[in-house]
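Hey all, quick one. A colleague (J.T.) asked me to put the nicotinamide-adenine-dinucleotide job into the tracker so the inputs and the structure tokens live in one place instead of scattered across chat threads. No bug as far as I know, just bookkeeping. Sequence used:
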Amino acid sequence: MSKVIDGKHVSTIIRERIKKETADILANTGKKPMLAVIIVGEDPASLSYVRSKKKFAAEVGFDSETIQLPDTATEADILAHIDTFNQNPAVSGILVQLPLPKHIDEQKVISTIAVEKDVDGFHPEQVGGLSIGLNTLEPCTPAGIIELLHHYDIPVSGKHAVVIGRSNIVGKPIASLLLRLNATVTITHSRTAHLADITRQADILIVAIGKPHFLTADMVKTGAVVIDVGINRTEGGKLVGDVDDEGVFEKAAYLTPVPGGVGPMTIAMLLANTLKAFKRQSFA
Ligand code: NAD
């Protein structure tokens, strides 16, 4: 039977820490971090993520500004807004909510954000820095997963970590972070042969594919730590993860719930990155 990894609780602790540090800095210097967000189009999930980011930024004492553009916005429009934020010394962090409409070159947009303000950690320079072990702004979801493992004192060094999914925002960066912590890492994906034979070897299993209840109990070793990154909405409107949680719960040592597991950590780490970026720009 698993212990539940309570991301909601851990994220609250992190946000409280950020709130206190922000208040102390404001009292001492009169300055505070500012998060600038650009959203293009009306995707309901993206709008809801942006609302949460704004709400939590305000709650920890940051300023924030959101630019909302229609989905007919041109690449030049978006780049011009990024440039304005890049030049504005009051802006500590810039986030462009993904995905962008098909006619926009996502990589070009990400690469235009000033590296020191890239609080999502997606800029190619930061991706490179992460892979060679530099102190970068780490992508928020993978950084949140590592915080959860630390909080629950889950050993990583020497363990076999299996990652399902090789996206740039979760799969690849979590593999880099686990490798840095001396795990033996296997990355699997949609073309992986004999997937269950590999997942059954995992001490730590990270599932980030976007397929409801994909990981079933027979794919999990007894006593494994299972981190469910997936966010999927059923036809009935319920949020479910990539893990068949009822079955896996009986077998794993630890399991993250959906909702309330990795999701809240992503926003907490975005705020942590914004504070880190602010301190580097203001005091380094
Ligand atoms: P993605 O959608 O970009 O890519 C999916 C990955 O899954 C690919 O690498 C693909 O190879 C792999 N995959 C697909 N089918 C597979 C299969 N049958 N077997 C093995 N691998 C398979 O991935 P993403 O953007 O990392 O998103 C994955 C999931 O995580 C989604 O549900 C997304 O909503 C969720 N997500 C959650 C958070 C959070 O904060 N909790 C953050 C980011 C993404």
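Adding what we noticed when we looked at it: The pocket of nicotinamide-adenine-dinucleotide is lined by residues 141, 164-167, 169-171, 188-190, 192, 195, 208-211, 229-232, 262-263, 266 (CB under 6 Å). The CA atoms of residues 3 and 242 lie 18 Å apart.
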